[in-house]
Design goal:
It is a single chain. The chain has 102 residues and is an alpha+beta fold. It has a domain of 66 residues: Roll (2,3-Dihydroxybiphenyl 1,2-Dioxygenase, domain 1), CATH 3.10.180. Helix content is 25%, strand content 25%. It is built from three helices and four strands, in the order βαβββαα. The chain has a four-stranded mixed sheet, covered by helices on one side.
Length: 102
């Protein structure tokens, strides 16, 4: 057993995108992420402690094209009703309505 338990300070989700400029604009305008910083071929965004690294990969297949189920993030959010409403008002593409499920 360790003397002190490890603590995750931060995590970042890395996404390959075909068009870095378009993906960045969408995440900022429609989902409300903030711009942290840029590096050649990369954009670093955040929504509070939720961090995203976007890497420009123009030839990469999209998650929907691969049929792979491994492209997702599980995020716990407080005040989800307010966030859901805000995202809808921003024009975010919502593919499933907010609902309670078993």
């Amino acid at each position: 057993m360790m003397a002190t338990d490890p603590k995750v300070i931060q995590s970042r989700h890395v996404l390959a995108v075909a068009r870095l400029d378009r993906a960045t604009q969408y995440l900022m305008d429609k989902l409300g992420l903030k711009h942290d910083f840029s590096a050649p071929g990369w954009e670093f965004l955040s929504f509070g402690s939720f961090k995203v690294m976007l890497g420009e990969c123009p030839d990469a297949l999209t998650a929907s094209e691969t049929g792979d189920h491994s492209y997702f993030a599980h995020v716990l959010v407080e005040n989800i009703d307010e966030l859901y409403s805000d995202l809808g008002e921003r024009g975010a593409k919502i593919i499933s309505r907010l609902e309670d499920k078993p």
